[in-house]
Amino acid sequence: ANGWDIENVIRSLSDKIGAYHLHNNDGINDLHNRVLHGKMDFDLFLELYNKVTPEADLVIEYNRKGIITLEEVSEDISYIRKAIK
Question: What would the pLDDT profile of 16-72 be if each residue is shown by its tens digit?
């Protein structure tokens, strides 16, 4: 979704969105970084999620080649859980 108008995409496709697969990247490559490690504005995304598609599933997807600890996964989950209603 690099460079996309995320708000327009979510609002336009709201009735077709059943799930999101979440990760972040450098704005160019599909790196599957942690949710707060990249260019994507996750605060904006989660605000839109709450307003437009709160019933959609959220699936976190990381790069298998990256070194992400269980503690880091837990931190990302906590961040998301605090933001959703």
Answer: 999 999 999 999 988 889 999 999 999 999 999 999 999 999 999 998 776 888 899
Rounded to the nearest 10 degrees, the angle between the axes of helix 6-13 and helix 42-52 is: 20
Q: Residue 9 is encoded by which pair of tokens? A: 């995409």
**Structure tokens, 79:** 């961040």
Q: Which residue from 37, 27, 28 is spatially nearest to 66, judged by alpha carbons?
A: 37
Q: Which residue has the tokens 């999101």?
A: 20
**Tokens 């999620």 found at:** 49
Q: What is residue 42's three-state secondary structure?
A: helix
How many Å apart are CA 40 and CA 54, to the nearest integer?
Answer: 19
